[in-house]
Amino acid sequence: MLLPLTQNLGKATxxxxxxxxxxxxLTQARSTKRSDQGLTLIEGLVAIIIVTITVVSIxxxxxxxxxxxxxxxxxxQALQLAQGEIDRVRALVERDKFELADLPPAAxxxxxxxxxxxxxxxxxxxxxxxxxxxxxxxxxxxSANKSNTLIPDSKEKYIxxxxxxxxxxxxxxxxxxxxxxxxxSSGDALVPGEKPAAFVMGVRVYSFVARDNLNANKGEKEQVxxxxxxxxxxxxxxxxxxxYTTVVPSNASANVxxxxxLCKPTNADLQGSRKC
Length: 276
Hints:
Elements: H1 2-95, H2 110-115, E1 135-137, E2 146-147, E3 159-162, E4 173-179, E5 199-207, H3 211-215, E6 241-247, H4 255-263
Parallel strand pairs: 1-2, 1-3
Antiparallel strand pairs: 3-4, 4-5, 5-6
């Protein structure tokens, strides 16, 4: 009768040992699970911090690049506008089919116009009211407020130009054009009412945001620098594009002498140095 009891006790002892091992295993499993959960939370926090640092690091350059691209685009439009006006005037002179009213307003002799491209006084910014309330635009929706000319009646004035076709009918640029008095086809000074055969021409294109400063006599003539800027910067006073050129017909060999006469320095000390 003792043997079965011993077997039963043995069985009971084995059962308790197995239960103890099972309890230990469960405890370790729970501990490991809690440890894994803790590591997952820490890893998540680290990932969030890394993503935040990355976003904060790359966002300013993205905004800077976008802003710079917009400013560069506006400067390109201004340059195209200035070059287009020069090409228009040059084509008129080449064909010799124009009137004085088709040309930019005279602003003095060649030397004075050349000084406009330097630090000398020369031709000032268009610190005056605009030519009119009309806008030069290709948008058909703006026909009631449309003008067909880029030519102001004075060197101190500017023309409003709308290059967008979004129906806003608002100016994007302010254009100032001017020229020297010029020479006739013989290389001599003009008589009153005579059309010039050659002259020096200048074009400045301002952003529309410069209007208030121009009207307040605070405009400048030096071209704006867009390097490293995403805001308006000195566009509020300075032009986005500035071009100067010599307009001489190229359809006759005699015009080489006309070009030389036009570009001859007025100062005797500068002989041999061309100003065009």
